[in-house]
């Protein structure tokens, strides 16, 4: 298994481990809750040792742009959920599914990207480097 697929596997395992944790605006800790970008930062740090920016919009500025039909597990997927581009982020798992921290009152969960709601709001995807850039 090469480093990229190994990293994607680690990201998927880490993402699955946070399912069910409560949503909390500004949250970045499994003990107190996550918002979408806090959950992604936590998973990526644990899986790859990369320290991502704090917001979904800033995360969208890094990594390689990936078209929707070329998504692989571990890619970051971005959506316009607040009438702002790149206002929501999740981690792609494969089979059109992604993990994310949805909104107040919710919990980290898996959703289907092919659902009308998510497909209409899809903004793009990024593939992170397999190792930190020095």
TrEMBL record:
Residues annotated as domain NlpC/P60: 5-129
InterPro entries: NLP_P60_dom, Papain-like_cys_pep_sf, Peptidase_C40
Keyword set, alphabetical order: Hydrolase, Protease, Thiol protease
Domain of life assignment: Bacteria
Biological process terms in GO annotation: proteolysis
GO molecular function, one term: cysteine-type peptidase activity
Pfam families attached to this UniProt entry: NLPC_P60
PROSITE patterns: NLPC_P60 (PS51935)
Protein family: Belongs to the peptidase C40 family.
Name listed for the protein in its UniProt record: C40 family peptidase
Natural source organism: Candidatus Methylophosphatis roskildensis
